[in-house]
């Protein structure tokens, strides 16, 4: 029954891809084509979870007591997976639909209920997405959505005694959550300083293309974005020229126009990025694009 409803939710999500994508464009300045792709990809992920869940949850383990040295085979054990209970899901602003369904679908197929705390930027798209699950037939009490700033409602949710597990995607906030949550399972997907390593025999055209895609996709606002390039000195100059040529072709503008570089999510993010640029300049960095 759960898998059937998830497949239905996936189909409804795809049917509503245009209005949800419009929310992503307006809320988080995601380029229009990328916004549609996020919604469609989310529907595919929900269907995948439905299929895998049926397979995984149908399995059990049969153990015998002599599997440990010294014991006799006088006892048997059959183990299977059971639901945790209430899952608190906290996705980030950069993928408020995709990184929400990646928490929602596994939780539901495993028999849990779920409380979604969407990001402040991206909350409307998340609400629309949750509505698709309700339209599919999931009871409103089984999947709930609570909006609000993390600074105002975050502690109440993460420390609530009714929460049995927390799945969080974001940055340093995950450290604070892990300290406050208590003795419950935590799933933390946090940030990283992702490096692109380039050796002497690399295909530099392929490298340059992936540096641009990895570094500038959604204006670099991704935990998996390329943030530093470590390249062998013998090919460094050639690679810089190839990257410069590709950067020069990137378009800058509003997300509605499907530009490559769109406004970042907040003024504080913009100030942080500008601060990094100024810091690099003061430390003698060479600027390839002015």
TrEMBL record:
Domain Aldehyde dehydrogenase intervals: 3-288
Enzyme Commission number: 1.2.1.9
Entry keyword set: Oxidoreductase
GO molecular function per UniProt: glyceraldehyde-3-phosphate dehydrogenase (NADP+) (non-phosphorylating) activity; lactaldehyde dehydrogenase (NAD+) activity
Stored InterPro entries: Ald_DH/histidinol_DH, Ald_DH_C, Ald_DH_CS_CYS, Ald_DH_CS_GLU, Ald_DH_N, Aldehyde_DH_dom, ALDH-related_metabolic_enz
Claim: RNA-binding is one of the keywords in the record: no
Pfam families (UniProt xref): Aldedh
Protein family according to the UniProt entry: Belongs to the aldehyde dehydrogenase family.
Entry protein name: NADP-dependent glyceraldehyde-3-phosphate dehydrogenase
Protein species of origin: Platanus acerifolia
Lineage, uppermost ranks: Eukaryota, Viridiplantae, Streptophyta, Embryophyta, Tracheophyta
Encoding gene (name): gapn
């Amino acid at each position: 029954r759960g898998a059937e409803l998830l497949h239905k939710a996936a189909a409804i999500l795809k049917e509503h891809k245009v209005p949800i994508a419009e929310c992503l464009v307006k809320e988080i300045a995601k380029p229009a084509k990328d916004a549609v792709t996020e919604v469609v990809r989310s529907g595919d992920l929900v269907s995948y979870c439905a299929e895998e869940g049926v397979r995984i949850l149908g399995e059990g383990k049969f153990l015998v007591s002599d599997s440990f040295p010294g014991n006799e085979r006088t006892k048997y054990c059959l183990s299977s997976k059971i639901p945790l209970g209430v899952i608190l899901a906290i996705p980030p602003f950069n993928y408020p639909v995709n990184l929400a369904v990646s928490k929602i679908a596994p939780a539901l197929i495993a028999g849990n209920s779920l409380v979604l705390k969407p990001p402040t930027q991206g909350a409307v798209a998340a609400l629309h997405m949750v509505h698709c699950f309700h339209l599919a037939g999931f009871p409103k009490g089984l999947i709930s959505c609570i909006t609000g700033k993390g600074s105002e409602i975050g502690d109440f949710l993460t420390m609530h005694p009714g929460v049995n597990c927390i799945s969080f995607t974001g940055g340093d906030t995950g450290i604070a959550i892990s300290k406050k949550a208590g003795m419950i399972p935590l799933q933390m997907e946090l940030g990283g300083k992702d490096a692109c390593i380039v050796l002497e025999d690399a295909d530099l055209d392929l490298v340059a293309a992936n540096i641009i895609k990895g570094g500038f996709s959604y204006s670099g606002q991704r935990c998996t974005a390329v943030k530093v390039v470590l390249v062998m000195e013998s090919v460094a100059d050639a690679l810089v020229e190839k990257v410069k040529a590709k950067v020069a072709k990137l378009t800058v503008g509003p997300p509605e126009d499907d530009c490559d570089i769109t406004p970042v999510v907040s003024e504080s993010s913009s100030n942080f990025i500008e601060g990094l640029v100024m810091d690099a300049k003061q430390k003698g960095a060479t600027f390839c694009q002015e």
